[in-house]
Amino acid sequence: MRRAPWKTPVAVVLTAVMLFPIYWMVNVSLTNRASIRRGDLIPIDFTLDHYGVVLSQQLPYLATSVLIGIGTVLLTLAIATPAAFGLAKLSFPGGRTLSFILIVAQMVPAVVMSLGFYSIYNRIGLLNTVPGLILADSTIAVPFAVMLLTAFMAGIPRELIEAAEIDGASTWRVFSAIVVPISRNSMITASLFAFLWSWSDFLFASTLNREGGLLRPITMGIYNYIGAQNQEWGPMMATAVVASIPAAVLLVVAQKYVSAGVTAGAVKD
Amino acid sequence: MTKSPGRRVSAGVALAACMALAACTTPQPAAPSASGEATKGTTTADIKFWDPYPQRTDGSDWDKLVKACAPQGSTITRTSAPQSDLFNQLTTAVKEGNAPDIVVLDNPMMPEAVSSGLVATAKQANIDTTGVDANLMGPGIVNGEAYGVPFGSNALGLYYNEDLLKKAGVDPASITSWDALNAAIGKVAASGGKGITFSGVTGEEGVFQFLPWFWGAGANLNDVSSDQSVSAGQLISDWIGKGWAPKSAVTDNQSAAWDLFLTGKYGFAENGSWFASAAAQAKFKIGVLAIPSKAGGVAPVPTGGEFAVAPVQAKDADNHYANAAAVIKCLTDGDAALKTNETLGYLSAKPDVRAAQVKSNPVWQPWVKSVEGAQGRTTELGAKYVEVSSQLSEAIQGALNAAGDATAVKSAFATAAGK
Amino acid sequence: MTTPVSSAATGHSPSAVTQRPRRRRSTRWVAIAFVAPLLVYLVVFYAYPLIENVTMSLHRFDRGSFVRGGAPFVGLDIYREVVSDPRFWRVVSQTATFTVVSILFQYVIGLALAVFFHGGQFRLSAALRGMFLVPWLLPVIVSGTVWQWMMNPDSGVINSFLGVFGIDPVWWLNADNALMSVTIANIWLGIPFNLVILYSGLQNIPTDLYEASSLDGASPWQQFWRITMPLLRPVSVITVLLGLVYTLKVVDIIWIMTTGAGSSQTLATWSYGMAFGKGASTVIRYSQASAVGTILLLVALAFGVVYLVMQRRRED
Fold it and tell me: Average pLDDT, stretch B291-307?
């Protein structure tokens, strides 16, 4: 592929513009409360106290969030990948209706979903548990993942599958040995979204897991700084900074995989 | 198909089916009823306590105080959520027969909580309300029946930056009417400072902050668009228009307004007694005044603070109420009241305890009058207050956006009142 | 479901026609087996809330009858009230503006960035692309607040920046400008989503197509319109469609910045405020909230139909 070194400085500038609000967040997280609303460009009234507070209080919530994120990703992929294969490559009857339903499913207001879950969970004892929250969080990602994976799998050449079938491979074998490896790229993309949505979920957590103690996600932990009439923005911003580190690492790693261009090569037969 | 994935799929199906089944076959929990007597029950091993203080984390003084109130053989699990979330969570929990034993609920929510059948009477839950000031108890009395008890109260006042006032040549003692206040703000602005911060955010919080001016103008909650009401709207609108108050008041909540005041650029801040201790530790010297009324004198402020209540229970109500009775008594009875209020940074709802607080902690001195003269927001209108509050909220937003334009302020109040 | 990507990528025509009938019957059952977990999942998790939502909008609920039951059935009365509310059409048009403007900018910027990162290798490419997604990691309560502060009319950094160019300070979050301001913040939030999907879409376009057209003397601009856009179409359609659905649903960023005040009220924030008793009115209105929610569902349904029609036309 061509090289375009001139793009590096442009990309740096674009990234800087895009990330300016994040810089502002870091800036505030390093500023004493008395000055957080002064609008200084750099943290003149400097302090590290907010990070001290966060590191002493928020780490368990962070771990829970990671756990829930991974659980959501696995559950989402387990349901969405075979379904997408069935829709894209096998003659599933009523596939169109199903993709229609998937669109509509994503419009069900989360408020209504959470009330429904509460009443079911309360009766079967899933309230205030991590698996319960993983199940609930997966509902945000599953319809999306099915649609995304279907769109990408539709692009896999039929010849590839037929060749395998002629060699006597079962449908499951075709799926697991050919389709899944080829779809790695889009599966990572879908996982990314599943992870990020569960990472940022507040509504389900606050309804279904409010008495979960330390087994609550970071979005709940952040509420420790929101009092009845008083909000501690310094620690909140510091929490956001700390919380974004594991997720950012994950993003960069995932992006590396996507950019490796595995599929692009494979699809090209 | 190989075996293992098939098994995985069928396990998933089984789980899903069991969930669906549970949803379909388990009978709806019995509707929560209003029966039950604390005196007939005994305390149980697990007691659930909900409050609106998420910032008071596990291991904080308040957390320890509450947990120390567990009766012999019981443990208290305390969880928190912001006020309005807590109210909704309580609604869902009561509906599903899963209510906590004790909830601490913001006072203007009381009439609606009662009329929606969420709260047991003070008598049922054996809660002692004697000695509580009538104005503070007001929001918890519905149709002559008492529900829960307010353990403490907070109030709004006018904080000022002593350095800025001195520089501008303003004597705080002279600020006893709107004209005097405006003159003082004008002097601060003329000497290079900024005027006043307050919260005008949409919703109850902004209304709470507006009510001292509203009542101070002689307006009445039964008539949102009266001339008095409009004049209060004009007052805050002019502050924006003249650049005395930050334009961000339309979205600032009370915490944001306080953060702006802490920058040291503003002469005044309308804010609550919950910041009294923080004010004593600020980088500049902060004083506090009672909020003046229009014509002169102290304006009535709305009562602030929460009620401790026992939610309605679907089963074992006697025992749950006994739990509530024991814990609430431990937090509010006799000497405990003083400790509870000092821990929360509140002024007690009982006059004798309040006197003791002021004696030991002079920071409370300027607030006593405001608390004693405070009016319950819902005392007059009951559950109808929420409708009036939403009209006022719209009117306040309109007034602030008008930035001083008198015609626009007047029409904002008229529109909000539906005229 | 065949798409231009597959036929173009392979250079052959779709070959479903060559399947033997006997085989097709058995694959049908296999297909059902693959999709079954999803079907069960949808029924269990979506059917109940969906029915619940519609049921609530047909009964008059308040907090009391929500708890105790016994809300009266009122047919379509709630819908009539909602639609005849003086605010309704204003909110609808604000929702339309918010959605269309957000999608347009998110898609165009996201696509431009995806093409930028895709064509030609350069140092730090992967790392910088990863950084672009960071806005997504933040709790919206934090990023929303940061935007609110940056847009502070008196001391905000955006007004200070504009001041350098002699532009008067803007009152970003007053009643008139609120819609524009929350849309800007929402575009910012949505760019990562568009970038990720469109970028992976670009990666599935075989590079030899570009190489061939380069030999034919096509300019990059021509390549973009003749190769990139047509081959990206299925992914673009999905991106825009999902973008529509998600943007219609947006509550958090608007709520944190303005609580839906002034022109920033959309159908979603309106419904949210009523369902939770938040915002200007603390009165809880479950039924009205559900009715607005159902209206949003119908809008999504309409988009779904458009999508189906587009798909069918492509296949015929």
Answer: 95
Q: Which of A78, A100, A150 sits opposite C308 (nearest CB)?
A: A100
What is the spatial distance between Cα C243 and Cα C104, in angstroms, rounded to a whole number? Answer: 10
Instruction: State the Cα–Cα distance between residues A154 and C112, nearest whole angstrom.
Output: 25
Confidence of residue C152 (pLDDT cuts 50, 70, 90): very high
Residues B168, B255 within the same domain: yes
Q: Where are the domains of chain A?
A: 1-47, 57-267
CB contact under 8 A, A115 and C312: no
Provide the 10 A C-beta neighbour count for residue A42. 9
Name the residue range of residue B252's domain: 156-302+381-416
Coil, helix or strand for B258? helix
One domain for residues B402 and B310: no
DSSP state of C43: I
Q: Are residues B322 and B410 in the same domain?
A: no
Q: For residue B287, what are the β-bridge partners?
A: B160
Q: What CATH code is carried by the domain that includes residue B82?
A: 3.40.190.10
Size of interface A-B (CB pairs under 8 A): 102
CA B145 – CA B272 distance, rounded (Å) = 29
In the stretch 112-131 of chain C, residues with CB closer than 8 A to chain A read: 113, 116-117, 119-131
Partners of residue C277 in chain B, C-beta under 8 Å: 84, 87-88
Count of domains observed in chain B? 2
> Which residues make beta-bridge pairs with B308?
B104, B149
Look at the domain C88-264 and name its fold.
Answer: MetI-like fold (1.10.3720)
Which is higher by pLDDT, A174 or A255?
A174
Q: CA–CA distance from B9 to each of A137, B2, B3, B273, C35 (Å)? A: 19, 12, 10, 59, 10
CB B323 within 8 A of CB B164: no
Q: Are A35 and B284 in contact (CB under 8 A)?
A: no
Q: What average pLDDT does the segment B232-261 reach? A: 95
pTM of structure: 0.87
Q: Quick one: closest CA in B to A79, which residue?
A: B9
State mean pLDDT over C84-92: 94
**Partner-chain residue, chosen from A7, A185, A219, that has the shortest CB–CB distance to C120:** A7
Could you tell me if B95 lies within 8 Å of chain C, comparing CB atoms? Answer: yes
| A57-267 under CATH 1.10.287.130, yes or no | no
Local confidence band at C17 (pLDDT 50, 70, 90 cut-offs): very low
Q: What is the reported pLDDT for C25?
A: 56
Cβ–Cβ of B250/C260 closer than 8 Å?
no
Which of B20, B204, B251 lies at the smallest CB-CB distance from C282? B204
Percentage with pLDDT > 70 across chain A? 93
Confidence label for C208 from pLDDT (cuts 50, 70 and 90): confident
Q: What confidence tens digit (pLDDT) does each residue in B334-366 have?
A: 889 999 999 998 999 999 999 999 999 888 999
C126: its two tokens: 């992967």
Residue B325 and residue B176 in one domain: no
Residues 255-314 of B with CB under 8 A from A: 255-256, 258-260, 262-264, 272, 274-275, 282-283, 306
Average pLDDT in the B170-197 region? Answer: 96
Is the domain of B329 the same as that of B316? yes
Residues in A closer than 8 angstroms to C52, CB to CB, are 112, 115-116
pLDDT over 60 (residue B33): no
CB–CB contact C64 B84 (8 Å)? no
The HSE-up count of residue B169 (CA atoms within 13 Å, CB side) is: 5
Given A37, A57, A211, which is nearest B77 (Cβ)? A211
Top residue of B7, B240, B251 to mutate, by most chain C CBs within 10 Å, is B251
Same-domain check for residues B288 and B407: yes
Tell me: do B251 and B388 sit in the same domain.
yes
